[in-house]
Amino acid sequence: MPHFSRTDTDAPLTKTVAAIDATGQRLEKQIACERPLTLYLNWQPVVTLMTLGARPEKLALGYLKNQGFISDVDRVESVIVDWSVNSAAVITSESIDGLQEKLSEKTVTSGCGQGSVFGSFMAGLDEIRLATPSLKQSTIYALLKNLGEYNETYKNAGAVHGCGVCRQSQILSFVEDIGRHNAVDTLAGELFLGRQQGDDLIFYTTGRLTSEMVIKVAKMGIPVLVSRSGITEMGLELAQKLGITLVSRAKGRHFLVYNGAETIEFDEVPA
């Protein structure tokens, strides 16, 4: 397990500020914090993310893993976060030859709080083999109900996305961030550190299901992706190619299955 080091303690997730309502009354309200975090790999700068600041070590690991810059958790020696200079450095004994070439192959994306992926991001997709899930409609409803207990920062301040790793209707881990891709990378970092397999897991997000989101969940080995929001054409095409059960517009007792309906048992059809 890598060594973790952090200075300036944990970054606050919200801040109380003054606002004036429609009646002219002054109110104290919470807003979401937003701060830059520059990621370094063996002290070479990789990218600067705009983030809420929750679990920065796992965000750094998950981002680098999903981009294809690291692959072996046993060779990660340390993760150093220093909020005084807004940086996170991952030190690994794994070879990073060709890093600068990979960084030069940059694509601007639809992601919020991130906005770009690198050439290595698409590598290895043809080798991904996901488990075939078995999911009940009643389980989806129970999961959505349980998720209502989360989203603490969103409830207090808005302006953030939330993502969760779930097993059936149980939420194993949930994180919020300014960008939905930061949130998914943070959870990817947790699975990476814990050497967890995603075969029996469900990934939930409040954000839209774009190609980047589908790819990252596939790289985590998770075969079911559920979103409160909508999907994009490329997100759907990749889900079909990779065999991901894709559920969107999931809220309350409503959802739409765009791929993998045969993996769901419709056992609680609304009247």
From TrEMBL:
<dbReference type="GO" id="GO:0005737">
    <property type="term" value="C:cytoplasm"/>
</dbReference>
<dbReference type="Pfam" id="PF02634">
    <property type="entry name" value="FdhD-NarQ"/>
</dbReference>
<keyword id="KW-0808">Transferase</keyword>
<dbReference type="GO" id="GO:0097163">
    <property type="term" value="F:sulfur carrier activity"/>
</dbReference>
<dbReference type="InterPro" id="IPR003786">
    <property type="entry name" value="FdhD"/>
</dbReference>
<dbReference type="GO" id="GO:0016783">
    <property type="term" value="F:sulfurtransferase activity"/>
</dbReference>
<keyword id="KW-0501">Molybdenum cofactor biosynthesis</keyword>
<dbReference type="InterPro" id="IPR016193">
    <property type="entry name" value="Cytidine_deaminase-like"/>
</dbReference>
<comment type="similarity">
    <text>Belongs to the FdhD family.</text>
</comment>
<dbReference type="GO" id="GO:0006777">
    <property type="term" value="P:Mo-molybdopterin cofactor biosynthetic process"/>
</dbReference>
<protein>
    <recommendedName>
        <fullName>Sulfur carrier protein FdhD</fullName>
    </recommendedName>
</protein>
<comment type="function">
    <text>Required for formate dehydrogenase (FDH) activity. Acts as a sulfur carrier protein that transfers sulfur from IscS to the molybdenum cofactor prior to its insertion into FDH.</text>
</comment>
<feature type="active site" description="Cysteine persulfide intermediate">
    <location>
        <position position="112"/>
    </location>
</feature>
<keyword id="KW-0963">Cytoplasm</keyword>
